[in-house]
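Fold Annotation — chain and its backbone
Next Lines — sequence and tokenised fold

***
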Amino acid sequence: HRSRYVNYKIIRITTYKRGSIFILENNLLLTKDGSSLIGCYSNYKIINVPASVNVIKRNAFFRSEVVEVVLPDLVERIEDNAFESCIALQKINLPESIKYLGNGVFYGCSSLQNMKLPQYLIYCGSSVFSKCSSLQTIELPISMKSINKSMFSGCSSLKNILIPNSVTRIGRAAFYQCKSFKEIIIPKSVQYIDRLAFNGCI
């Protein structure tokens, strides 16, 4: 069996601005030290992110045709729109090391069905799962304080969600057009529900 990594190459790229140096490893563009993934230019359906990476930069996988992404245990940040419009993406692991999910990280990932957020997640931005129309189940961590603006808007297949007792705020249009909701229990910890939070859920 011939390994798909048999032609493995590392290429150094120097930009004209400030002499920055990047590494292209298996068609993944990384910073020189390998700590940040800047862009994905691979046609592989399964992407194994290098073990050295702890940050997935903004728009890194934007509109990629990837089906599965395997993240290493050291990843701490996934920045804005990192996986936006990856319409074929069905599976991605979110290691417990992740503390930060930026805005729109999985916006429009219409093939995602099940997700579990990291237990010690500190920040989860707005529209993170917006228009993930196939999303059926998601587990929220007890560390979550706020369900931010449009976080699950357009998740038309989401049937129920358990909001942890740590949540104090539900943002505007957080569950807008979640048409498949059967039941949602809002804990006593929630002190504020913004406009349109559950609009279109019936």
User: Anything to note?
Assistant: The CA atoms of residues 133 and 155 lie 5 Å apart. The chain has no helices and 18 strands.
